[in-house]
Amino acid sequence: MIAALASVACAGSAPAPRSAADLSPQAQADELLALYDPIYVALYTESARAAWVAATDVSEEHTGQRTGADTAFAAFAGNAEVIRRARALLEVQDQLDPLTVRQLRQMLYLAASAPQTRPDLARARVAAEAQQSARLDGFQFCLARQGDTCTQPVTTNDLDRVLQTSTDLDERLRAWQSSKEVGAVLRDGLVELRGLRNGVAREMGYRDFFAFQVDNYSLTTEEMMALLDRLVDEVRPLYAQLQCWARHELAQRYGQSEVPTLIPAHWLGNRWGQSWPGLVEGIDMDSLVSSREPEWIVQQAERFYVSMGFPNLPQSFWEQSDLYPVPEGETRRKNAHASAWHVDLQSDVRSLMSVEPTWEWFTTTHHELGHIYYYISYSRPEVPYLLREGANRSYHEGIGDLISLAASQEPYLREIGLLAEGQEIDEMRWLLDSALTGPITFLPWSAGVMSHFERDLYAGELPPEEINRRWWEHVARYQGIAPPTERPAEGCDACTKTHINDDPGQYYDYALANVVLYQLHDHICRNILQQDPRACNYYGRREVGDFLRAVMSPGASRDWQEVLVEHTGRELTAEPMLEYYRPLMQYLEEQNRGRTCGF
User: Fold this and answer.
1) In this structure, how many other beta carbons lie within 10 angstroms of the beta carbon of residue 7?
2) Final residue of a domain: which of 506, 539, 559?
3) Could you confirm whether 521 is annotated as catalytic?
4) Of the residues 368, 389, 410, 454, which is catalytic?
5) Using the 8-state DSSP alphabet, how is residue 340 labeled?
6) Which of 553, 471, 461, 571 is nearest to 515 (CA)?
């Protein structure tokens, strides 16, 4: 690190370091940041470019190049000298300005992923994570066996199709059980990873890995869990009505005379019950966009933002992005997951999609450009490179999902010609399907089950033989769902969720994003546009763009809670989400009259 800093200084891009005794703490911090930033941006950009190539042209060669670039970035970010100097300066943070303190804390947060103060531990974690991913990615799921021989190998897509379409409970049970078999293969690896992740986090001064991840929000574990519990409690009355309606609907669908209090997991159309698709029939949104060209969908999403006063996307976006499916005849393979990229932390913004004329791609494209315009909004001199990211991890998803919601509003669809005169959307069926496949079923899963389980796993050092039992305790408590058969102690049904293995300790990001989006949407509709949040049109309203820029432009340079209170007038709450679904609550209470609800 010292050699790298010195080389940057000698190149003339920053002043040569002087003796620390000659400088005030603020001057020392300024000097460190002046040396750190150019290397950080260069290595970040190299890593992002390699990742882009690996995602848009999948090959072993490109994967290897990405690994090399990621390793170089991690070695710099976790450098022992960076850690030493940042820690020393934070010990006198009362003599530093707030923006400097935020940058130094971010420096240490980045270092905590692979601290070179314990390179052996960092290397062991990387290797163990790669092995765990290989176990999951390489597992052969099987729907039928003869002894130890699989006679019907299947993919997870095959299992999902069964759970989404089959009305045969025996077939559904086999598919659900097959989806959980990989858990036993993954359990010991997760336990090993728990030890390594906790070890890395403790090397950086955190109590455990979960506390390290929560620190992105400037909260303690206790504060985060209290926040999540409050949000779950706020949505619980509506969720209880939805769960009650769903179990009666499902019992009737499967010809069951007895309606269970807890929904059997294999009755639902999602392997984890995080979404309950297929319960509302007759909603066909694809027909609205099926006659449009994919290019129109992307261009209309851009027009949505431009109509609110945002700039046109830079020409480099159109030249560098990969927006459509790989043409027939090409052998190139690309990652199918939609994503937005801020390649150089400046003006190089790109999107990776495979846009087709479907409703999902229409809303997804609006969502992904939300990330792009978030990048553009905080890429300005007032926001240091280290803080060019969302106010916290949930804000980026929250902004993207906010625009997806806005793009689904009936007045917008009419204005751009997707809904013809006389063509109506059944609001109650729309709200019901939205609740079943969106935030109302998702919040208890994400803020409840996933977050409490991972807190127990890392902070509570949950014994291996207790993993499955604890998992299903949380599922019953928060989701009102039960396993269809007794689950083995040597299994790990939690491990079947990829995030537990390779995106750990931060699933609450998705929960908070859902809450943030409804709070922002409610404020925009009621206070800025004076419109009904269920029929609200942002299109062409520059005052909405001004509001969104004010929320997005600070990046991570300001506390996320301060930004939220300043712009919406209140702390984070699920109340706007509940108000959005208030007509549905009234409908469900009527539908459930005479039934015993709750679990």
Assistant:
1) 12
2) 506
3) no
4) 368
5) E
6) 571
Does the annotation flag 523 for ligand binding? no
User: Is beta strand 149-150 parallel, antiparallel or unpaired with respect to 145-146?
Assistant: antiparallel
Catalytic residue of the set 62, 248, 499, 567: 499
Cα distances (Å, whole numbers) of residue 366 to 302, 373, 400, 445, 546: 8, 11, 7, 25, 18
Judge whether 599 lies within some domain: no
Q: Write out pLDDT tens, residues 253-286.
A: 999 999 999 999 999 999 999 999 999 987 889 9
Q: Say what the pTM is.
A: 0.93
The answer to whether the annotation marks 129 as part of a ligand binding site is no
Query: Do the Cβ atoms of 305 and 369 come closer than 8 Å?
Result: yes
* Per-residue burial over 109-138, b = 16 or more CB atoms within 10 Å of its CB, e = otherwise: bbbbbbbbbbeebbebbbebbeebeebbee
Say yes or no: 296 and 411 in one domain: yes
Q: Is 337 annotated as a binding residue?
A: no
For the stretch 65-79, pLDDT in tens is 999 999 999 999 999
Domain co-membership, 184 together with 277? yes
Q: Are residues 189 and 272 in the same domain?
A: yes
Residues 35, 96, single domain; the answer is yes
Q: 368 an active-site residue?
A: yes
What is the spatial distance between Cα 101 and Cα 112, in angstroms, rounded to a whole number?
Answer: 17
At 327-362, the pLDDT tens digits run 998 999 888 789 999 999 999 999 999 999 999 999
3-state secondary structure 483-513: CCCCCCCCCCHHHHCHHHHHCCCCCHHHHHH
Consult the annotation and say whether 397 binds a ligand. Answer: yes
Among the listed residues 170, 116, 122, 119, the one whose alpha carbon sits nearest the alpha carbon of residue 143 = 170
CATH number of the domain at 248, please: 1.10.1370.10
392 shares its domain with 501: no
How far apart, in Å, do the first and last CA atoms of the chain sit? 57
Does a structural domain hold residue 318?
yes
